[in-house]
Amino acid sequence: xxxxxxxxxxxLVEFKDGCRYGKFGKTKAYELIAQQRIRAYKMGGKTxxxxxxxxxxxASLPRVESRTS
Length: 69
Prior knowledge:
Strand order of the largest sheet: 1-3-2
Radius of gyration: 15 Å
Shape: elongated
Helix content: 25-40%
């Protein structure tokens, strides 16, 4: 049996706080969840966003290279 993930707590926050943290709106958040780019979970009646997945999403974005004329 694998010990992967044992002892690691998820950083879950309410939906609106996850959007604020990720600097995107609710429409974009639902889009990213549907594309499985960020993870979300249901806790009772609330949608919780995994902040580690938001960090992973941001890290995966392409870097903008500056152009010099």
